[in-house]
Design brief:
With 379 residues, the protein is an all-alpha fold. It folds into two domains: 27-100 and 138-174, no CATH class; 198-379, no CATH class. It has 14 helices and no strands. Helix 4 (67-98) crosses helix 9. The longest helix is centred in the middle third of the chain and has 49 residues, at 126-174. The radius of gyration is 25 Å and the shape is globular. 26% of the residues are buried.
Length: 379
Amino acid sequence: MKTIQAKNNQKNPFYAHFAYVLVSLICLFTILYYGRHILFPLLFAMLMGILLRPVEVFFNLRLKIPRVASIFISVFLAILFLSSIILFISWQIGYIAHDWDKISQNIFTHYHNIQKWIFNKFNISNSQIEHYLKNSSALTFDKGTKYLNTTITTFSEFLLNLTLIPIYTFLIMLYRKLFINFLNKIVANKYKRNLNDILRNIKSAIQSYLLGLLTEMGIVATLTSIGYTIAGIEYALLLGVITGLLNMIPYIGITIAAVLSIFATLTSSTDLSLILSVVAVNAIVQFLDNNILVPMIVSSKVKINAIASIVGIIIGGTIAGVSGMFLAIPIIAIIKVIFDNIDSLEPWGYLIGDETDEKKSGIKIPFINKIRKRSEKVT
């Protein structure tokens, strides 16, 4: 076996192998970019299918419900969960609309305070500021009409995907065996064991990551809501839930949530000291998230280093915006599992991995491990 590998290495020097991997990755990203409107809903559905697999197994094997009905119930429960979050946010936004007069008054007060500060600091009169704002608003309006069309198109795509993803998820779960058999048919017999290992590791890694992410989201939302309530910030529950949801976008999600919370605080109150409370709550939650929640909950069998994660998120954001950022880590995890199980690509898996994580991976949450182990018993 070693002789065959040595001969293969002589036939394929490093620079040729490097070029092959590089061209393959460029082709992959090109396909993802141009096919993002079709592929990304399918990728979301695939992740949902992997996440809901233990639920399907529970209904099918434990409760003896027919397989098709088990899949339908699993997808329905997922829709119910997501709908409840959307309804809650809509309900909270209703309160904001009810307080619109107070919000507009606070915005007006802040605007005048800023005008006074600019005049005292830079000796720029109110008329000059207003003249500048009028010119800026004219330019903004011209650009705004262009962005409005883009926003309407994006929103239409979002609504379409919202309908398609549950259907895709149901069908992917229903035809799971068909896809596995297809892969077994196109792979040579000597590599079938490798294929089964890859599929099992991908399922385990994705389930571990997504279950951990959902748990982290719930804890971050709860901690932030409690912190904002203690600090006396209005709409604490809504801002807490939004922070939990945005925290699912690695690295930048919590920053976006903090900016939104500061803006919401400014519009709901004239007390500028509350901004310090928002920053303090976010800093504490971020510290707990990075040092306790992520090592204990989100750590999975696949370790990805920070450089690979950040670059992946940037590429994902460039290709498909927020959905690309969210999908970046699972896609990198899948790529790493494939690399780790193919001898010639193993060094690339090592490159995007994080060996130091094994020493500081922390304690794992028992119920997540239980769910994952149960699902691993059933392929």
